[in-house]
Amino acid sequence: MHDEPNIPSAEESLFARRIGGVVLGFVLFLAGLVAMLFHIQIIEGSGYRDKAARQYLREVTSVASRGDILDRRGRMLAESIESVSFYADPRIVRRTPHPRGKGRHGTFDNSSHIASLFARHLGGSRQSYLKELRKSRGVAVLGRKIPIAKAMALMHEKIPGVWFDREHQRYYLNVAAQLIGVTNSSNHGISGIELKLDRELRGRDGTTVYQRTATGEKFPAPDARQQEPLKGKTVELTIDGDIQSVVEDELAGIVSKYNAAAATGIVMEVKTGEILAMANSPTFNLNNRSTWTPEKARNRSVTDSFEPGSTFKIVMAAAATDELHMKAGDMVFAHNGTLPVYRLKITDHEPYGDISFREAIMYSSNIVAAKIAMEVGGEKFHEYVRRFGFGSKTGVGLIGELPGKVKPLKEWSGTTLPWMGYGYEVMTTPLQILQAYAAVANGGVLMRPRIIRKVREPDGRVVSESKPEEVRRVMSKRSADYLSREYFRAVVDSGTAVSAAIRGISVAGKTGTAQRVTDGSYRSRVYVSSFVGYFPVEDPRYAIIVLVEDPKPAYYASTVAAPSFSSIASRMIACSGELQQNLSMHSAEQEELRSIRTVAVPELAGMSADDAKRLLRWLGLRMDVSGERKGFVVAQSIAPGSRVEKKRTITVTIADQDMERRTM
Fold this sequence. Notes:
By secondary structure, this protein is α+β, with helices and mostly antiparallel strands. It contains 24 helices and 28 strands. The chain starts with 9 loop residues before the first helix and ends with a helix. The longest helix has 34 residues, at 10-43. The protein folds into four domains: 15-59; 63-234, Penicillin-binding protein 2a (Domain 2); 241-596, DD-peptidase/beta-lactamase superfamily (Beta-lactamase, 3-Layer(aba) Sandwich), CATH 3.40.710.10; 599-663, Trypsin Inhibitor V, Chain A, CATH 3.30.10.
């Protein structure tokens, strides 16, 4: 007997198919789920993680404080101060929720209270704040760049819709504007030293990563890398703030007195090349950008070149001494004031005949200078021009410096050599002329001018430091000393620059009065007046150049530039103990030095009370305040320019601080 096969019934087959379908569907679901998770976590995982991080993480940048710029004595020329700016969202302010627990619901307009609060703490009218808070759109600005001390009370207030941002604001002592330069709204240097050393001064911004809770509160993320801001490096300049102030004051006075277009003054240490002052007039207020113009912001000491005129005769005198072996007593013929050259004429301001070579330099004979240059010869004269550094940048490293212009020998015409002999057909900067005379004062050795002394880390560690650097020997020490003693001292003692003399100290130097080309012609009779000199002659320590553009009606250097040289030198000696100590080793007339220990009272009108106090303290003067304690100077008890003994008290009248808001 055989068993019959177990054939499932129709119901059992249907059930089995259903179970198989369910299992297959579940498997497909799991496969789809795995595929979706793989897509989310592996393929697009980083995107979703970033999205999630943005929801509960926020990175906040802390702007680094910009480094300080100091003068040679460590006094602050530029610094970053922290300030606060207040803002508000008018929509939130006008719909401020009622405080809890007072049985009130809904919102109210808090504009009136906020306006009164800010008017009380920051000054200004309540109506001006109300007007800002009632704007229909945008953010209301309630205060910009408010000092921390003034803003502190408001910073502790918790007002819905009102917030503040901390920011760093650059503050300047307001000297050497063209040299130091300025920064932009992003705290980056855009001119001067601020631009040249922007990387060193800028520092490194910090970052803080915050997490947010479900209620919106934030706290530093414990597992995120946080970076503290690092303050920028400190830059120490060779500039002496006192001397810089003196030069700026003198230049402003001479521009005003002679209705000049501009003026430049530089003071240099002869033996080291360090620049103690580099000033320009007109200038601008570093703390008030509205006073900035391209014309005022130009550092003419290095960016402007001109035909120097008679100050360029230093090249002729050096070549004559070394190459022609000329002596001060040698007689030369000055052609009675007129010398024809290639259908043109070279003239002197006086009809000199037979005169000594010393007298030719003392009285600045163009004719003798031209004749000597031709006798030296083109190749040798060109060699001396280049030795003194003309036609090349000085190496000071300032942005915008020009090399001047010296024609290649192959481009010289028949008039180039005689004209160059007395300072035409050649272009120089004021710094180049000063560097050349400082080389003679330094025994014939040309030094590279220096402005930047040291760069230091915030902890005081020195990163870089400049040292005196010899460029080349221009002439022998014997010849250099001879030029100083026999020619350039005679110019000041009894020549064209007697007005440059300094009581008790020997001075050597040279005047220069040159016509300036205007619209391709000399017919407009626009002059550049200059004097360059150094002292004391026995062992020179300091060299100064003063250059005045388009003075009128007087334009001769003996009248315009030379007296300013004397005034600058006398005032800087009076205000600097370092100079007095250095010069006392070489000058027997100590009583003369003591007799000039007075200072000129500066113009204080328009300055803030703090700026005025700092400037007077620099000059050794004291300040007493009449009226408001904060604000701007509107009057002073002693007229600007008056000379007074050190430690004298100057009483100033200060306007109320609302004046600051009106003048911004």
